[in-house]
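Re: [ENG-882] Designed sequences occasionally contain unexpected residues at chain ends

Forwarding the minimal case from QA. Structure tokens:
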């Protein structure tokens, strides 16, 4: 994705489909943390925005674990937020890890479909199943992000 926030829409749809089994905060945070180094590069350092390690399944695994631990540490605060918004979310340890890992791995899969410089199997520098669904994936991500924003606005307005 050219813009990191558009990873939130597909992640939200995954949560909506599997919400009994995965944690929303872990999923959403996991879907964007993969671009954390890209943000630092873009804003401050001018380095390569698609870090090969972060944008690999290996990096996604470790970033997902980091996200899960952060969500576990912030669990009581996050529960207060979702409860106040009347969002029925699963805060079991398994759901938090599932959400965080699904978030980071979904980021890699979406980026494989839209970028030619993603090496999902780093340290192997090849992209064996590079898929060129650029416009379809972009449109899907934008539409699902709009749906997610409208859903959250509706939840906040009902509060
Ligand atoms: Zn990315």
């Amino acid at each position: 994705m050219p813009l990191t926030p558009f990873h939130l829409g597909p992640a939200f749809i995954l949560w909506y489909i599997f919400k009994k089994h995965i944690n929303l905060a872990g999923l959403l945070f996991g879907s964007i943390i993969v671009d954390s180094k890209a943000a630092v590069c873009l804003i401050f350092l001018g380095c390569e925005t698609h870090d090969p390690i972060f944008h690999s399944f290996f990096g996604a695994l470790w970033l997902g674990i980091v996200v899960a631990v952060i969500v576990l540490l912030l669990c009581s605060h996050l529960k207060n937020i979702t409860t106040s918004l009347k969002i029925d979310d699963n805060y079991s340890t398994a759901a938090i890890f599932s959400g965080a890992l699904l978030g980071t791995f979904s980021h890699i899969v979406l980026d494989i479909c839209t970028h030619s410089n993603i090496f999902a199997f780093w340290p192997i520098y090849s992209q064996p199943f590079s898929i060129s669904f650029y416009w379809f994936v972009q449109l899907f991500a934008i539409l699902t992000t709009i749906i997610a924003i409208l859903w959250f606005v509706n939840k906040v307005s009902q509060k």
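QA comment: On inspection the terminal residues look reasonable. The chain is about 65% helix and 0% strand. Proposing we downgrade this to a documentation issue.
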